[in-house]
Design brief:
Elements lengths: L6 H11 L3 H14 L3 H7 L5 H12 L1
């Protein structure tokens, strides 16, 4: 995933996955700090489930 997070991804995480904007911001900070992708950061800190991770990757790859 690109280092810039698009507004579409943020809106998807908020509207479809149900994450608050503060949780999304935390995920972005964690992904930058750990030099990993946003989806993996969200999942590894249990901010999203495995099913939500799959849905996010489906969205990103479509």
């Amino acid at each position: 995933m690109n280092s810039k997070i698009s507004n579409k991804v943020i809106i998807y995480l908020n509207k479809k996955i149900g994450l608050s904007y503060s949780t999304i911001h935390l995920g972005i900070k964690l992904s930058k700090r750990n030099n990993t992708s946003l989806p993996l950061a969200l999942w590894s800190y249990s901010l999203i489930t495995t099913d939500e991770l799959d849905k996010l990757y489906d969205f990103l790859w479509s």
